[in-house]
Amino acid sequence: MTEKQLQIVETALHLFAEMGFDAVSTNKIAQEAGVSEGLIFRHFQNKLGLLNAIMQIGAEKIALFSEQIEILATPEEKIQAVLELPFHIKEDEYPFWKLLNGLKWQNQYYDQTAVAPIRNIIEKAFKDMNYSNPTTETDLILAYTDGLATSILLKSTEVDKNELLKTLRKKYNWILKK
Description:
- The protein is mainly alpha-helical.
- The protein has one domain (about 5-170): Tetracycline Repressor, domain 2, CATH 1.10.357.
- Helices cover about 70% and strands about 0% of the residues.
- It contains 9 helices and no strands.
- It has helices at about 5-20, 25-35, 35-45, 45-70, 75-85, 95-100, 115-130, 135-155, 160-170.
- Helix 7 (about 115-130) packs across helix 8 (about 135-155).
- It is elongated, with a radius of gyration of 18 Å.
């Protein structure tokens, strides 16, 4: 992406995360980014094209996380890494993950295929550990991860991440070794 495209994407990301996708116009994005609205259309066709560019970045980030998790030695370490993902979100990336997290409630925009690699890693880990219902166990881990991410992203100043992580590790010490 060019510098201008990145500027547009960053501006749109912050506005979408704060106001919601439907509430933000391309005109507002252009004004905030200091570019013409026509430039947005030239690079991204429309607002949905801009959202798709942001979601593609998210899919690439998730794929990178998946690669890092996949190389861990044991199934337990893989599950632990997934459970702890929300605790490793950098604060300067909160708007990005807040937007992607919020899109789950807007089905017409959300793409579940981006998280499929993480789901596959967890399910395989439970199979490797001979769990009788690895799919349901995977759903539970993803629900925990989703809830933790939501809590951290929406209540970042109110949540003691260290205490939450400590409690999570204590409660699930059958998997979490640290």
